[in-house]
Amino acid sequence: MTLDVDQLLAIRALVEARSTSSVSAFVQHAVAISLNDVAGWGALLASALDQTGGPLTRAERTWADDVLLKAPGKGRGKRAKRTKARAA
């Protein structure tokens, strides 16, 4: 497992301050919290999908990818193009 030097120094400072018993204990706790977060978000997503008609269709996924993966500053439709033209 690899940590940034700054992260390791911060964890060691917590150990010295007795906020955690060891670097290993801190990392184990952090991993447990992260795994619980992932499980919680997965359950939340599953519930939301159940309430809104199930998993995304291919068309919905394509639309979402187009909207969410568009490069910043490219605009998102006619209104964005008009706003950009006014600014120029």
What does this structure look like?
By secondary structure, this protein is an all-alpha fold. It has one domain (5-87). The chain has helices at 5-16, 23-51, 58-68, 78-87. It is elongated, with a radius of gyration of 22 Å. The model has no long low-confidence stretch (mean pLDDT 86).
Shape: elongated
Whole-number count of domains: 1
| Count of separate DSSP helical elements | 4
Give the termini separation. 49 Å
The structure class reads mainly alpha
Beta-strand content: under 5%
Q: Largest sheet at a glance?
A: none
Mean pLDDT: 86
Q: What are the segments in which pLDDT stays under 50 over at least 5 consecutive residues?
A: none
Rg (C-alpha, Å): 22 Å
Task: Say how many strands there are.
Answer: 0
Estimated helix fraction: over 70%
> Secondary-structure element order, as H and E?
HHHH
Describe the structure using short key phrases.
4 helices, mainly alpha, 88 residues, elongated, 0% strand
Give the topology.
Blueprint: H1 5-16, H2 23-51, H3 58-68, H4 78-87
Summarize the structure.
The protein is an all-alpha fold.
